[in-house]
Design a protein that fits this description.
By secondary structure, this protein is of the alpha/beta class. It contains eleven helices and six strands. It has a six-stranded parallel beta sheet, sandwiched between helices. α7 links the parallel β2 and β3. α1 crosses α2 and α2 packs antiparallel against α4. The two termini are about 20 Å apart.
């Protein structure tokens, strides 16, 4: 494998990379206190939350393609999770109230993973700029980063910033432009193998797949990605400093 250029900048995915969204989702789903879920065991909650987060029917992708609203994709995901749990679907009024309550409660539980701040401290010490590129709209993700205590991440590109979603090269390259680096000198780190790691490599960046050892992403998609892609794999963000070098 040819020698990679020295890293001059780092871009991150947000959900399940910087922010533990799945944990926030799980806490929120339980906190809503639906009476018909009171019988759930811890294993039931884990299955229910994992299904909601993984979205096997692709409703979030339909949102990215402009076929569903953000609220609709979320409701369809919970309806599917309820169906698989043997529960009756929410009617339209109940679904609307559920979504409003979910939207209000979810931001209360946004937390950064423990390995995020130490890496950002290291990048700051080395004078290496960093930012985030996300498959959601800018303002929603700005609020999420702030709620998770990550106000220091100032560069942020959302799907509305360039009218494109990962793995389209345009969204990665906008992040590179804002950092003031070159694609080949920029790491992109994310939990989705195909969309993040392989997509970043295709855009000319150095793609890194974050496959967390203790908290694997609900959206892994190994089967959709080439086994011989020029990406690297880390099990924690604590491994990234060594890739950046001195």
């Amino acid at each position: 494998m040819p020698l990679r250029p020295q890293v001059r900048g780092v871009l991150f995915d947000i959900d399940e990379t910087l922010v533990d969204l799945q944990a926030a989702m799980g806490t929120t789903l339980q906190g809503l206190g639906e009476k018909d879920l009171a019988h759930f065991t811890p294993a039931d909650w884990n299955t229910y939350t994992s299904l909601f987060a993984a979205d096997p029917q692709g409703h979030y992708d339909a949102y990215l393609a402009g076929h569903l609203s953000f609220a609709d994709q979320r409701v369809l995901r919970v309806q599917h999770a309820r169906e698989q749990a043997g529960l009756a679907p929410l009617d339209s009024d109940a679904a609307r109230m559920w979504n409003e309550a979910y939207e209000e409660m979810l931001p209360l539980h946004f937390r950064a993973f423990d390995d995020v701040v130490p890496l950002l401290d290291e990048l700051d010490m080395r004078g290496i700029p960093y930012g985030a590129v996300s498959n959601n709209v800018h303002d929603y993700q700005r609020s999420k980063l702030d709620a998770a205590g990550l106000q220091r991440i100032e560069v942020l590109v959302g799907i509305d910033s360039v009218g494109a979603a990962k793995p389209d090269p345009a969204i990665f390259l906008e992040g590179v432009r804002l950092l003031g680096t070159e694609p080949g000198q920029t790491l992109y780190i994310g939990d989705n193998l195909r969309v993040d790691a392989v997509g970043a490599c295709a855009a000319g960046l150095q793609g890194i797949w974050l496959d967390r050892a203790e908290n694997p992403s609900p959206v892994r998609q190994e089967s959709d990605a080439p086994a011989d892609g020029d990406f690297r794999t880390v099990r924690s963000l604590s491994e990234v400093a060594a890739l950046v070098g001195s």
